[in-house]
Specification:
about 240 residues; single chain; Spore Coat Polysaccharide Biosynthesis Protein SpsA, Chain A; 7 helices
Length: about 240
């Protein structure tokens, strides 16, 4: 069986999205002979960072297919029912990780997250309270009106494109959960910032792309087919 570290860190993989823009259930879609969800799951295990893994699923979809993906690779993984929003699903993961000192929340739609990024985010979050993977913006950024007419150029200095994993000490997420109540956010870092707490950015990975559309899925499949990315190997014990 794969070895999982007993560090007190829990990985929460969010698999509760509606996949409306992808036009298919992207987390069970084939990617190089493996379901998309399996890639994040295997990477989290291969990182050797987590005492436990939680997969958050949609409340309105039968869990059989997802459970089969999860149990065959990590039998001790917990399946938790999420909510109607991403934020509600994150709070469901928080409630299921009472034993965690650090919780790393990761979108299952980012299959190419390397094990080292999980480990780095958890290490920094344990030391500093938070660690959000991301990339500094390199492109020129312009604001446009509804007609697509450019209005102004936005200085990109200090701007980051956020990724996942986003790792936090448990008490940080607990404080954010209480402070923001029923509000919803685009990611967990936004909820933590809305609570007036500090978010530390961590250099992510270019390959840690997000599958949102069918074009994204096709591109991800192309990367796998060309051998540019591959699923991490697990040590079986």
């Amino acid at each position: 069986m794969p070895s999982i570290a007993s560090t007190g860190a829990v990985c929460a993989i969010l698999a509760a999205g509606a996949s409306t823009r992808a036009g298919t259930d992207k987390i069970t879609a084939d990617l190089g002979g493996q379901p998309v969800l399996a890639w994040s799951l295997v990477s989290a295990i291969a990182s050797g960072t987590f005492a436990r893994i939680v997969v958050v699923v949609r409340p309105d979809v039968p869990q059989g297919a997802i459970e089969a993906i999860v149990r065959s690779r990590a039998p001790d993984t917990s399946l938790v029912v999420g909510g109607d929003t991403r934020t509600q699903s994150s709070w469901a993961a928080l409630a299921a990780a009472q034993d965690a000192d650090v919780i790393a929340i990761h979108d299952s739609a980012r299959p190419f997250v390397p094990p080292s990024l999980f480990a780095r985010c958890v290490e920094i979050a344990r030391a500093r309270g938070s660690a959000v993977a991301g990339l500094p913006l390199a492109d020129t950024v312009r604001r446009a009106d509804e007609a697509g007419v450019a209005i102004e150029e936005v200085a990109r200095e200090g701007l980051w494109s956020a990724q996942t994993p986003q790792a936090f000490r448990r008490e940080v997420l607990e404080r954010a959960r209480i402070a923001v109540a029923d509000r919803s956010f685009g990611d967990d870092a936004a909820a933590v910032r809305a609570a007036g707490l500090t978010v530390h950015m961590v250099l992510g990975e270019r390959r840690n792309l997000k599958i949102t559309t069918m074009e994204d899925l096709a591109y991800a499949r192309e990367l796998v087919a060309k051998g540019i990315v591959g699923m991490p190997a697990l040590q079986i014990r």
